[in-house]
């Protein structure tokens, strides 16, 4: 493998890992703070991607829009969706046992998949890379790297930093960390006058929005297809298991690890590439059954 | 008191959680035929002590000896099978099983025989008599068929002890067995504890001071994870340090 | 679980009686369908041992089913007329072996982790048969010869296969019922209710859970064998996590904690699928049957906490509640 190819694969690994981190962070947050295991989280990613596809023509005719307008509109819709979903459905899951949460959110996946099938159909679609970002960055003499992929990584990093800022520097972040799972803590936070219901709704909406945004941003490179929600969900589970549930730091480390193992695996050992990630998980479980990091 | 009588010994047990020292070089010895009470304010480390002795939490330093053997590295089930029984502060009975089944399952730990899958557990020749005996010793002989979940709080605490006895332990670690009990139930439990003293070594963690001074042969006082006094009840009662640190608050 | 000749036992005996008599008045399609449902019932029973019996929520049961099915097809290719006598144990053993490996690692985790890890390991098995030539890839593989047992049991014949499946289902049911009353089964029940208490009492819980996991995997492998023999064809979708989800739904729909819940759930789930896929009822919308199924799943988990077998108890409580309230008012207003 030449240096340029190696560099390209490293950049690809980084981009894939960061995207995974974004989706997985929502999953681990929702579990860490509200105690809900949400199988439908992958569906939000899919919804984001399909929004990018479906909204482009609409936004183009209404706003003469650019890709960024699509992103903004999609983000707003995703926040609304998350808000409504939490109020109508997820708020009833908090006190239930895990098996019930698993099955009810599994039922929700089926509902989302069929609604998508009804509204947009089952075809595979592409989303055009916006002209502004369609350039190629030269690497060395022969190879180039798509600017858009760098853009994806940049968006993920920006969001990650944003989350870090909110958690560590804002009052909202403090309240979120204080209200983390545990009925005792929840009651304590409530007695301090903080509206825990509203807090949870905000956190959930944010989780949905982040996953949807990841889907929107990834759409031009990964294409938009029916099974994309399921595949990203299961990999996110592996991220959370390796990283440690409730730990954002763990999700980042695990996502990057998986990004590299998967990307280089596909290049070096294509036959077994699909299995590598799980082998990695098995090895880490042997060593650390609770994941690499503790919650927080 | 010869060391042959010492059934359980904790030697300089220490437990650190990050920067916090929950237990600081705590030593104690339990002798057969005695009831050794551990008292202290909330957060004094009593629960940590029991958890370390029972094997639920490993110590950061120090050693645990059961019946003369170093069991510091032993898992909780292994210690339990070697004769270390414990009861919990909150009820850990099996609410959907009958009183007899609760005790029988506990007794089964001694004679697990898991391979005989075709034999019905309800007719197990080893665990059923042991369960009946344990339930009787705890005063529950009239309630064997009752579902554990519908028992009164006091009866549940009795069942908690019965399950402990069903494993035929040498040492009993009892964590606040009197919690939430009324006067009459407390009397019954104290009579039970006194009757158990003869055959076992008992460690009792309790908040009810009157009860403690009535049944204990030896009292250890803990404050902030360390032992500040240990000795006969009269000595503890008259100790100025103990009164200042602990008894004076009551 | 006490086995008294109660309404429960009568229900089970009646159910098996109906199943035995069914071929007498059913057509080819009906026999085929009920045969398939019985296979799923065996699959559901395997999961009930884990979830209802031991409290372990496994989201990867389809892997063991699939391995049993694939082993059946791959090993039967070795002989012209493979005998059930070694093929069934081999398929069961293969599934149990994978369960042993997965269990050894997964049981080091707890709670939500366990659910996710079992799902991941099932996905790993899926990718092995999907991506590598080992399992024939996405096309799947065909069973070359249906197995026989001696001169009388030729599983090529649908009625013989039906009887064999029914007998296997009954045998598995009886085995699990006996197991649940045994010392091993009672220990599993204790672990389900309060594992910490069991450890404090002296039970090393890990070996018990691993044994339950392995036995459960083996039984799922038996179901896989039955499926492979019936359909004569296996493909990677047998290991899909959707299938793992479906079997979880079966047992929660039927009622967790009761063996007959697995039976009821398998039939109820199959009927629900047939219902929503029925073009007679839904016309062209029937191709979106998963929407109805998804909503039905959500509704049944929310409204039927004890499943279908728990309905009589739920109704009784409602009636008793109403009657006692009426009695109270009668006392107040004589």
Q: How many strands appear in the DSSP assignment of chain A?
A: 2
Shape of chain B: globular
Strand order of the largest sheet of chain B: 6-7-8-3-9-10
Largest protein interface? A-C, 41 and 41 residues
Given helix and strand content, the structural type of chain B is alpha/beta
What share of residues of chain B is helical? Answer: 25-40%
Beta percentage of chain B is 25-35%
- What is the mean pLDDT of chain A? 86
Percent of residues in beta strands of chain A: under 5%
Outline of chain A: globular
| Secondary-structure arrangement, i.e. CATH architecture of the largest domain in chain B | 3-Layer(aba) Sandwich
N-end to C-end Cα span of chain B: 33 Å
- Give the CATH class of the largest domain in chain B: Alpha Beta
Question: How would you explain this protein's 3D organization?
Answer:
The complex is a heterotrimer of chains A (296), B (250) and C (334). Chain A has 296 residues and is mostly helical. Chain A folds into 2 domains: 25-226, no CATH class; 228-296. Chain A has helices at residues 3-34, 41-63, 67-88, 98-120, 147-169, 171-178, 183-191, 196-222, 228-243, 248-268, 273-287, and strands at residues 136-139, 143-146. In chain A, strands 1-2 form a two-stranded antiparallel sheet. In chain A, β1 and β2 form a beta hairpin. In chain A, α5 (147-169) crosses α6. The longest helix of chain B is centred in the last third of the chain and has 15 residues, at 183-197. The model of chain B has no long low-confidence stretch (mean pLDDT 89). Chain B has 2 domains: 1-83 and 169-250, P-loop containing nucleotide triphosphate hydrolases (Rossmann fold, 3-Layer(aba) Sandwich); 93-168, no CATH class. Chain B has 250 residues and is an alpha/beta fold. Helices cover 34% and strands 26% of the residues of chain B. Chain B is built from 9 helices and 10 strands. Chain C has 2 domains: 26-303, ABC transporter involved in vitamin B12 uptake, BtuC, CATH 1.10.3470; 310-334. Chain C contains 13 helices and 4 strands. Chain C has helices at 7-25, 28-54, 61-76, 84-106, 111-131, 158-181, 183-201, 205-231, 241-254, 259-277, 279-282, 289-303, 311-332; strands spanning 141-142, 148-149, 153-154, 233-234. The mean pLDDT of chain C is 89. Chains A and C meet through α4, α9 and α11 of A and α5, α9 and α12 of C.
